[in-house]
Amino acid sequence: MNQMMTILPQRELFLVIIGAVTYIALFVVPLLQPKVKHMNEVLSTVKTTYAEAKKAIKGYYPQECWADYGVPDKR
Fold it and tell me: What is the reported pTM?
């Protein structure tokens, strides 16, 4: 009898989890996809801008000044 009491709540919990995953897959993911795509584009732009600024700083300033602009010296 005691074993039956522990199996039933686990099964119900499993069904709740399956329901939540299904809800997320059907309703939440389609809403987030355009936002994620936009944020990935923004992140790509930031990375490109940082790389260009880093090259400019390394090209125009001596190595001792790189840290002043937040560019690490990894040599």
Answer: 0.56
